Amino acid sequence: MKPSTRAWPSGIIAVLLVLLPGDPLGITSDAPTAVPPPVTTAYLSSSSGGVTAASQRPGFARRTVRRPPTNVSIDYQLGGAYPLPLPARVVSRDWADSPALGAYTICRVNAFQAQPQEIGWWRAYHDDLLLRDAIGRYVVDAPRQEILLDISTPDKRARLAAIVGGWLERCAADGFPAVEPDNLDSYHRSQGRLTEVQAIEYVGMLAARADRVSLAVAQKNAVDLGRAGRDVGLDFAIAEECGRYADCDDYTSVYGDHVMVIEYTDAGFAQTCRTVGARLSVVQRDRRLSRPNSPGYVYRTC
Questions:
Q1: At 154, is the secondary structure helix, strand, or coil?
Q2: Contact call for residues 21 and 124 (beta carbons, < 8 A)
């Protein structure tokens, strides 16, 4: 997201806060409610059934991956899985949920920030991989209460890629054909302690790991990266509010029609449908990404 203008799904403009290491961030136990799976060293064998597209990633042998179909009805269910609306053929879900039966399902993994319910786990086992400011306080994405992960050195990037790579293996084992490494743009919220070059190097490591298990990899927002994501092996884009902020063309110039758009406002949705709805997959959701029958639930497609 663009740090100065983008609206987060929570409906609150992102701001940076720092908390003392002892601050609980709402966590009352050292153990998270959902502990990440252990990192494995063995990779799953590749499978390319139903292949519709291939990705050539630089620096290693070509693997065939299946990108999402383009210009179809989609849904965005990061607030919790529920039965797909009838027209939807593609959906993104959190990695703790299961793939949707009969639909192309993208596995969302928080690859750049620590989930609030998992902060106890990070502190207990990998506290040095949580980003701190100049006086040792955690750097926090305040609206989400997520501590940023520290990708500032090659060693830390390698260690984080090993941990998150294990989560990608789980996505593949559970049957997801693609992964969405979320918060790629967290360097904008890092108090200047992280750079886009570090983010690109790290996401490239994740792309290489995903490639070994034949997962397509999404670029989530971070439009300012230009072609850098594509150059390190990302396969398609998931863009929040590119119609509202008039930068959908910046994504399509890199990924062609392999761009999924999520809009949160009526005006942004109307603009997106009018300008790129005939080419791209577009959905309007409420900012809380709530489930049907919840107050404020919104689901519309072009």
A1: helix
A2: no
Question: In angstroms, rounded to a whole number, what is the distance separating the alpha carbons of residues 301 and 97?
Answer: 23
Percent of the chain with pLDDT over 90: 78
What would the two tokens of residue 58 be?
Answer: 């630089």
Helix 248-255 × helix 266-276 angle, to 10°: 40
* Residue 230, phi then psi, degrees to nearest 5: -60, -40
Give the strands of the sheet with 16-19, arranged side by side. Answer: 16-19, 138-141, 146-148, 113-114
Helices (H) and strands (E) in the chain, counts: 6, 13
Residue that the structure tokens 């106890």 belong to: 120
For residue 212, give the nearest of 73, 99, 61 by alpha carbon: 61
CB atoms closer than 10 angstroms to residue 74: 28
Query: Under a CB-based contact definition with an 8 Å cutoff, are residues 176 and 215 in contact?
Result: yes
Predicted TM-score (pTM) of this structure: 0.82
The answer to whether residues 232 and 203 touch, using CB atoms and an 8 Å cutoff, is: yes
pLDDT at 167 over 50: yes
Q: Which whole-number Å values give the CA distances from 274 to 74, 235, 270, in the listed order?
A: 17, 25, 6
